[in-house]
Write a structure and sequence with these properties.
By secondary structure, this protein is an all-alpha fold. The chain is built from eleven helices and no strands.
Amino acid sequence: MRFEGDSPNKRDPYGVMSVFSLYSGILVIFFILFIVLAEMLLFTGMVQASLTLHFLALIGIAFSTIWVRDRNILYSLQALMLLPLLRIINVSMPLPDESIFIYVIIYILMLVPLFLLIRHQGLSATDLGVTFNKILRYIPLSIVVGLLIAEGEYIAMGSAYLSANLPMQGMVGISILIFLFVGIVEELIFRSILQSRLEVLFGLNAGLVFTSVLFGIMHAGYGVPSGILITTLAGFVLGYMFQKTRSLPLVILTHSFASIFLFVIIPVMGAGIGII
């Protein structure tokens, strides 16, 4: 199949603002808004309605890709399919939401469509941001930024988290699971694939904003309006870091440290973790 927009001089997928007009991606914007609506229904407790919209989004995107001929629109739509799929798997899990093992199962399952999408789109390790340049310099940065994100989320959403009463072994185990599954898989989805594709289609700024909003709304399950705002800001920070460095390990570390501080350390040590 030949795609429109295959000219090598037309667009550079990574780091260069797209010359495509906003109108050319109207289908992508429609499905972004559709997913946002589905997540808002979930936020208000309308689980069945939310799942119905996510199912329709998944089917609608799949069918729309049959007629799309522009490679960048097609790849952006394929990236968006990961979000309703993630939500449907999440809500369908038989385990209670507070169980850490629900994340393990969800993200192991998400590795399958991720692998297929990466292979289908021909994304290389460089395309995904798999580089360890300056990683020693990035580690302290990821700890500091991760702590700031976690403190903001803790203040905004309260203290009803996973592990306030866990022994040390349990805390270490949860930290490892968060790093191996949550950080890696979510950053592959939101930064390496979705943000990169939306940047190609709409430009750097719009791609960053769209991805940040989707990241925030997909975490609306925290149940408080301020949670959407703070996770959207967190997504913006992570997206900006990725945009400037194109380093997947940096955003994985930052995301993982933020989750570990939020779910493991702060519930035990309190806000400020004894520093302030």
